[in-house]
Design goal:
Blueprint lengths: L13 E5 L2 E3 L3 E7 L4 E8 L2 E4 L1 E2 L5 E7 L8 E10 L4 E11 L5 E4 L10 H19 L18 E4 L4 E4 L2 E5 L2 E5 L5 E3 L4 E9 L3 E9 L2 E11 L6 E2 L4 E5 L9 E8 L2 E3 L1 H6 L14
Parallel strand pairs: 2-9, 10-12
Antiparallel strand pairs: 1-3, 3-7, 4-5, 4-8, 6-7, 8-9, 11-14, 12-13, 14-21, 15-20, 16-17, 16-19, 17-18, 18-20, 18-21, 21-22
The protein binds zinc ion.
Zinc ion (ZN) binds next to strand 14.
Length: 287
């Protein structure tokens, strides 16, 4: 891939995705190569915009796109639209193939008090769900995340992303995060820079912390024994957020780590995979 000036001589915008084919429930990096003087640039997937911006590399624009785990496997068109200082508009499209994932099935037996909810508890659960959905609709223009994402806790992966759950013989919603087994009290770290937007005790997820990384990216840390930050705090990658616990609907001490990206439920491990591609990585160009 040439990053020389000649590549943009005709003022076109070239778009590529990493990886080239993306799995359901994964994140991909969309990169545009175009004029260095763009005033604005964004991508569009299924009629929804996602933000892009100039990377620290000249003429390279980047954005992250989350593909929800329920996205139908097919080839989709990604459109990137840019405007330069002279109000000239550039646009380019890319075909992105979304591949089917066999997420598997998890059968669980839980105390019926945690599954067959009485009317009052059901009302609480529905209200909490609506609260979280409203939160994830929020969009912070500022991109707080930088560079590589990290695993928030040292622990064995005990439940993978996307598993279709059958609880006490009844089909329930998929597992939209990953579970990392760790001892009660183990430190839970911020996967990237962010602002704390929620700390609350919720019925299913127990003591729950949510970070807003900007640009529609949120990370969730559930079942904590305690939080060591509060709503409104700014944190950087690796900051101590709280401690592992087993609060809420949990059968043992672990961290449930979840990611929402522009509303899409994606596998947190796919964010770590992006480390293979330098995303807004200044270290790559100071050679
Ligand atoms: Zn979980």
């Amino acid at each position: 891939m040439s990053t020389g000036k000649a590549a943009y001589a005709e003022n076109n915008l070239r778009v590529e995705s990493f990886p080239r084919m993306v799995k359901q429930g994964n994140v991909c990096l969309i990169r545009g190569l175009g004029p260095t003087s763009l005033k604005s640039i964004y991508g569009e997937f299924q009629g929804k915009r996602f933000p892009m911006a100039l990377s620290e590399q000249n003429g390279t624009y980047e954005g992250l796109l989350g593909i929800d785990l329920s996205t139908r496997p097919a080839t989709y068109e990604i459109k990137v639209v840019a405007t330069d200082e002279g109000s000239r508009v550039y646009s380019s499209t890319l075909s992105l193939k979304v591949e089917r994932v066999n997420f598997g099935v998890q059968k669980l037996s839980l105390p019926s008090s945690m599954v067959d909810l009485d009317a009052k508890t059901l009302e609480r659960v529905n209200k909490e769900e609506r609260q979280l959905e409203a939160l994830f609709q929020g969009f912070r223009d500022e991109r707080l995340w930088r560079g590589t994402f990290i695993l928030p806790v040292e622990g064995e992966l005990s439940t993978t992303f996307g598993l279709n759950r059958i609880i006490n013989g009844q089909r329930r919603g998929p597992h939209t995060g990953i579970d990392l087994r760790a001892e009660e009290g183990a430190p839970v770290l911020a996967c990237n820079s962010a602002v704390v937007v929620l700390f609350d005790e919720l019925f299913f997820s127990g003591k729950s912390l949510i970070l807003d990384h900007g640009w529609g990216l949120y990370s969730m840390y559930f079942h904590l024994s305690e939080a060591l930050v509060k709503e409104g705090d700014r944190v950087t990658t690796g900051a101590l957020l709280g401690r592992v616990g087993s609060t809420g609907r949990s059968t043992g001490s672990h961290l449930h780590w979840g990611i929402r990206m522009n509303g899409a439920r994606v596998d947190p491990l796919s964010l770590l995979q992006l480390g293979k591609y330098p995303v807004f990585d200044t270290s790559q160009e100071k050679r």
